[in-house]
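Hi both,

Apologies for the delay on this - the queue was longer than expected. I finally got the acetyl coenzyme *A-bound model through. Below you'll find the protein sequence and the ligand SMILES exactly as submitted, and right after that the structure tokens for the full complex including the ligand.
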Amino acid sequence: MLQEPSTKYRSFAPIPLPDRTWPSKVISAPPMWCSVDLRDGNQALIEPMDGARKRRMFDLLVKTGFKEIEIGFPAASQTDFDFCRELIEQNLIPDDVTVQVLVQCRPELIARTYEALKGARRAIVHFYNSTSTVQRRVVFGLDRAGITDIAVKAAQCVREHADRHPETEWRFEYSPESFTGTELDFAVEICDAVNAVLQPTPERRVIINLPATVEMATPNIYADQIEWFLRHVKNRDCIILSLHPHNDRGTGVAAAELGMMAGADRVEGTLFGNGERTGNVDVVTLALNMYTQGVNPGLDFSNINEAARIAEHCNQLPIHPRHPYVGDLVFTAFSGSHQDAIKKGFAARRDGDIWEIPYLPIDPRDVGRTYESVIRVNSQSGKGGIAYLLERDYGITMPRRLQIEFSQVVQAVTDATGKELSSEQIWSLFQKEFLADDGAYVYGGHQLTSLRDQHEIERLSLKLKCHGQGALLHGEGNGPIDAIVDALGLRFDVLSYEEHSVGTGSGAKAMAFVEITTPARATLFGVGYHENIVTASLLAVLSAVNRALQRGLLDDAMPVATAQG
Ligand SMILES: CC(=O)SCCNC(=O)CCNC(=O)[C@H](O)C(C)(C)COP(=O)(O)OP(=O)(O)OC[C@H]1O[C@@H](n2cnc3c(N)ncnc32)[C@H](O)[C@@H]1OP(=O)(O)O
Ligand SMILES: CC(C)C(=O)C(=O)O
Ligand SMILES: [Mg+2]
């Protein structure tokens, strides 16, 4: 790269429009949408679509709700020509959909284009020539008048053909291609000249499409260009002003949004932004951006995964996992603080609330995705995500301090492996950590009786395997937990106890959580899981004791002989 890039690249000059109005406008209604997947998208593919793939894309576009679809460049390729004929002859174009085709300003190509459209009920003929300073110089070797002449002659040609086929309802679109590299006064001049031939009316408006054929500047410049153009073009009421952004600087969507604020009526783009170089503007992102502002975009992406798989099949190109709204990872939070906030957001949400879940700009369900992948756990994750997965997939609601304790167990594994952990793997870690029966004390059965004369006192007889040897302990207390603490005779206290049922009906089990504290003031949890609530509590105490012993936090002072007593 150059130390001084200004010796090679020029910055874009600002547009003189100090009283611009677009910055304070709000997008409150969708534009007219036109898909150019089958033309601009297709012309950029490594392997252009065959008839079958074109048909699949067309059907998807219709299903999605596009009312204008550019189906190809029939004068350029036989596949496009045949596809056009197939749609018309087999009557495959719904009544409310208008097909559009592209053609250069060349009479023989225009003639062939009308041949392809013969018998269509309604069609848009889209003709273009490049108007930019650089293309005038290097491609055409013509001045402004010469370039205008190409466009005007094409407009005449397009009209004459249309007049010869009144059975079709013709509409026209003209693009001063490379508009963003064209002086604004010349863009207006050439469009006025074309319109003078086409003679649009407010009832039969012409589409004037102002493409950012190559995105050359920040999106505000595009918006200025659109507002400037609309202030100066003749007969605004006879024009549908269309945008056609490309994405060379990665701001195609922003350019389209600001262009709409600047007064555009229509947007041409492609699904997921396929198209020349970095692509055309992505209409899915545009539409869903509107949706998340509460504006119905008029395009339906309720099953965004299906649309993505069809687009990938037709284009033979993958969609990036981080592509807005659709990528495999875009509804996933790996990082701890995000997971914590999402979990709290879901917990606080009530039916009918405005969508306000941190880090999720859209409800994944609105586009046919599930909450399945919202939280995934790796070494960047925290307690919130782990707790969310255990609650969502296994119905386990851990006490907050247990969440903290268990997240350290999970973190140790993710740090060691560097890998993601599935919810199933987290559950098996949980079982290994808290529910395994391989500790020093293994539960073997119990009996609990209330003392006849003192109802609040319970007597526990507890069968154990203690370091591999059978033992029978006895203890008393005002409940099973108190009684087992007494029976064990170890130096710990119970700090907290919680229990909830997991599952419903006859398959429901109790999960008990006991937090103990040791003489050195270490605290740690134990968990018990059993059909019987009392057994679950006893298991939870033993789980905590075993974990404490394992960590050297408790003295295992109990002589086995006494235990057997
Ligand atoms: C920004 C865009 O996306 S524009 C759309 C671009 N899409 C395509 O080009 C895909 C389909 N196109 C094609 O397959 C071919 O270009 C065809 C079949 C239409 C024409 O092919 P060819 O006749 O071989 O010509 P080619 O494309 O090389 O055309 C270049 C010639 O057309 C002229 N030309 C290019 N665009 C236009 C135009 N819009 N109007 C009039 N003349 C044009 C060029 O000045 C050049 O003229 P020259 O031969 O006198 O130097
Ligand atoms: C043909 C035109 C509209 C085009 O695709 C472009 O300029 O990007
Ligand atoms: Mg284009």
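Main takeaway for now: Confidence is low (pLDDT under 50) at residues 559-565.

I'll put the files on the shared drive as well.

H.
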